[in-house]
Automatic annotation (TrEMBL):
Belongs to the TRAFAC class OBG-HflX-like GTPase superfamily. OBG GTPase family. YchF/OLA1 subfamily. This is Ribosome-binding ATPase YchF. It comes from Candidatus Shapirobacteria bacterium CG09_land_8_20_14_0_10_39_12. The keyword Metal-binding applies. Its cofactor is Mg(2+). PANTHER family: OBG GTPASE FAMILY, OBG-TYPE G DOMAIN-CONTAINING PROTEIN.
């Protein structure tokens, strides 16, 4: 399982610049006019994880494989996209494929980057929100009331839910903000509603605002109701992308930042999607694997290979901290820190695991 994120925003909000910074190289066609992105640019970004190098040193492995995040730079949205304006239909089709949405909102002035209206990130968000709500309403309007004479209890419940969600969307409430039960969320999941997707709000700010907190920026731009926002100065991130690791640390320190905004963005993605990481450590390779919180040991094994899940016998598990403290598998076992876990075991963040399985 890998995190898949769609980067969306109005034309010239800085999506492609952010995308380029994420990938540390020029991929997206970045131009200061609308629709320079027509098809989504797709890129894979490695998740920085300092634990991997520590494990590799302990087990004497020369190969490190980090977890990855897939980012899609999706063409700029305009008012009327739900009716096919601009690149509307393509935009909406591409966004359905992402597990989460990053809203890039412009909060910078630049005479070289075209914009018809004054900079107003809250207004930009409202435009995007409206179009996504309208697109979801179109999806729901295609649903048909079941025939009462043959409808099952589940059919009737599903239809009542469609009506409930439709009414809320008409009132401007996004699906993810609706008071739905877990059963209702599962029931509506096959419709792939856009406003049901977890959202991350990124403010593309000027350099002078890069070190401001989420609260400070929310007050500055008057959208406290959006919740947490991540300030990103895409230009700074592009500069960071060209630096070596140590140079990057020094540059961030000069700016008064502890980590890059892009690292914060990836962490937020894991948080809102309820993801966690387990680790495998052997001489051949040290690797990070992404799973959902609450996944069982067999399900985690299946992320490595489906045969591992089918033939799962047990898992040898040790926490990352104990693995490091006792110098690897042998030391951790001698200290009694390696546990044998069965099919019911729920994986924890940072578990170092070796799966035992039978594929016969």
């Amino acid at each position: 399982m890998n995190l898949s994120v769609g980067i969306v925003g109005l034309p010239n909000a800085g999506k492609s610049t952010l995308f380029n910074a994420l990938l540390s190289r020029q991929i997206a066609n970045c131009a200061p006019y609308p629709f320079c992105t027509i098809e989504p640019n797709i890129g894979v970004v490695e998740v920085l994880d300092s634990r991997l190098k520590v494990l590799a040193d302990i087990v004497h492995s020369n190969k490190i494989v980090p977890a990855i995040v897939e980012f899609k730079d999706i063409a700029g949205l305009v008012a009327g996209a739900s009716k096919g304006e601009g690149l509307g239909n393509k935009f909406l089709a591409h966004i359905r494929e992402a597990a989460a949405i990053v809203h890039v909102l412009r909060a910078f002035e630049d005479p070289n980057v075209t914009r018809e209206e004054p900079v107003n990130p809250k207004s930009d968000f409202e435009t995007i929100k409206t179009e996504l709500c309208l697109a979801d309403l179109q999806t729901l309007e295609k649903q048909r009331e079941p025939n009462p004479s043959v409808a099952t209890k589940e059919d009737k419940a599903r239809w009542e839910l469609v009506l409930k969600v439709r009414k809320a969307l008409e009132d401007g409430v996004e699906v993810r903000k609706m008071d739905l039960t877990e059963d209702e969320k599962e029931m509506i999941k096959p419709l792939f509603l856009l406003t049901a997707k977890p959202a991350i709000f990124v403010l593309n700010v000027e350099e002078k605002d890069a070190s401001k907190t989420s609260g400070e920026l929310s007050k500055l731009w008057n959208f406290v109701d959006l919740g947490e926002v991540i300030p990103v100065c895409a230009k700074i991130e592009m500069e960071l992308a060209d630096l070596l690791a140590e140079e990057r640390k020094d540059f961030l320190k000069e700016l008064g930042l502890k980590e890059s905004s892009l690292e914060k963005l990836i962490k937020k993605g894991y948080e809102i999607l309820g993801l966690q990481t387990f680790l495998t450590a052997g001489e051949k390779e040290v690797r990070a694997w992404t799973i959902s919180k609450g996944d069982s040991a067999p399900k985690a094994a299946g992320v490595i290979h489906t045969d591992f899940e089918k033939g799962f016998i047990k898992a040898e598990v040790v926490s990352y901290e104990d693995f490091v403290k006792y110098g690897g598998w042998k030391g951790a076992a001698e200290a009694g820190k390696v546990r044998l876990e069965g099919k019911e075991y729920l994986m924890k963040e940072g578990d170092v695991v070796e799966f035992k399985f039978n594929v016969g």
